[in-house]
Amino acid sequence: MFEPTLLAALISTWLLLKYWRQVKDQQIILGFLLFAVTTGMFTQYWGITGLHLFTGGVVIWPVLVLLLGDRFPWPLAYPLTFIGTLIPDLYGAGIAADWHNGWLFGVGGAGFRGGAFLLPLEALIAAAGLNKFGIFMRRRGYFSRRVNIEEDAYPKDRDRRTR
């Protein structure tokens, strides 16, 4: 049952094409994607129920949406989590078969209950919620990068030593 993985790949491609140009700090986002993929590859293991891996994208992308606000569009949590899950999944399937014939058999095999389909949805829902929370908090002055400081923290006539 590869249809959910293909559906997630199509949705991811569409979202990346639509929103990637809106990302202000693309190199930082690619660095976090590399971190998420690396974490997934080094924490994966095969158990009796299949491949298990820690997908940091479920945590990383919603938190970045919260902190970066309009510098990182929240719909990108879906494709970035999908990529961060798919690459370790492909690598784990290759390890299981010693990189020979038929190694793609295990990728996306869980269908609509698999991580390649569910984890991006969970990250997208969390990112949408944290985006709304971030907007609410920014209206109250939190997470703002646009702070105006009228004067220096230590004017020249003030003693810097503790009192």
TrEMBL record:
Segments spanning the bilayer are 28-46, 52-69, 76-97, 117-136
Q: Which UniProt keywords apply?
A: Membrane, Transmembrane, Transmembrane helix
Q: What is this protein called?
A: Uncharacterized protein
Q: Which organism is it from?
A: Acidithiobacillus ferrivorans
